[in-house]
Amino acid sequence: MNEKKMRRAELLHIRNSIPDKDRHRQSGVIFELLKYLPEYKNAASVFLYISVGSEVETARIIDDCRACGRRIAVPLCNTAEHTMKAIEISDLSMLDSGAYGISEPRRDLIQNGVISEMKMPELVIVPAISFDLRRQRMGYGGGYYDRYLSDYVGFSVGLAYSECITECLPTGEYDRCVDVVICPERMI
Fold it and tell me: Which residues constitute the domain of residue 56?
């Protein structure tokens, strides 16, 4: 197992070991900090992940975006090419279980033209197992967000629990950092 895979497994274990109560509390603090970020406050369109497992929770962010009238997009993965598109949704009922057991836009709604791709969201909220002090991320190893961020010109935000911030992560030439990382104690 190479260094990056070993570090990924170690960091995922750390994140999964955070008690549910602490993850929920930290997710709330992270959301409150996000609300005051100018790029979030001013964004008319937000592309964000639907949280699963031990990830920083995004349900409050989705609710807030809807309440503020922001357009919302969520990922639709192409597992053959390891790419994804930001598909605009207006309601969570437009989601179904998709790649990797993650909720994603229903393909029948896309095929029927009910929902479509959001070409350039103003803000992207990026999941990760961990971030470092350079704002580099350790994802799950599929490269989906790195490929997406390589062409993205808007503002990107990473969300992380305190325990998931590390000094320096191993990176490769295709890894992309985010513009800011929000954890409960600070923004990096």
Answer: 3-187
